[in-house]
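dude i think i finally got it to work??
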Amino acid sequence: MFSNRTSFSDRTRRQFLKTALFAGSSGMLGVATAMVRRLEAMGAFQYPTGIQKLSGDVRVNGTAAREGDPVQWGDRVVTGADGTVIFVLEKSVYLVHENTDLTLQTETAEKHAASMEKILRIFKGRALMVFNRHENHRVFTPTAVVGIRGSGAYVEVETDKTYFCLCYGVSEIAVRGASEIRETVETTHHESPRFIYGPEANARIEPAPVFNHTDEELIRLERMVFRQPPFVPAYGDDGSGGGSGGY
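look at this
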């Protein structure tokens, strides 16, 4: 006997995802998001996960990656000189550029033993990220520790300094190894990028320009999980502003 209830099959889900993303690209993201929320309530929708797009040499835990592969907490992602990858993990989206080495970790929060912190360690390279807005993340680099909640951010790591742009949201920036040097930043549209120098380079945090990431990239990443950056209503969904570069 067949049930009258039609299941939301993987094929149907993929087709819906394509339709909803097209709606977002044509300025109907609010309609698409409402559709997602309704399907969530029905228990019939799953957000995209894993690798959405890649090119060149990309490795997860030392194994060559392919589109559709999962990326999970505990994984190490490394890109070669020609490698770029976009992946989704728990409604956060990561665009990892070439020559980057990072790990994704969870650790017990220092003040709340029952909760877990989401930690991104970037040893070298650069990445643009849009985070799940209901979770706290921390980003570690050789010279910086940055606490972030529900934000979009770009990080670029060099040997003696870190470039950090809080594209929107709230973060606390500290010099690694000199935590007394810290700054809280709140932005809506790239207002306060910073260079963070470690103790071996005269520990300090300095204002910096905006470079190497764009509003268009942020819009595209947020759209993958049916969100939009807070600057979109004010500036228009045209990808203008926010520096140079692209993917």
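The longest strand covers residues 116-130.
im so relieved honestly
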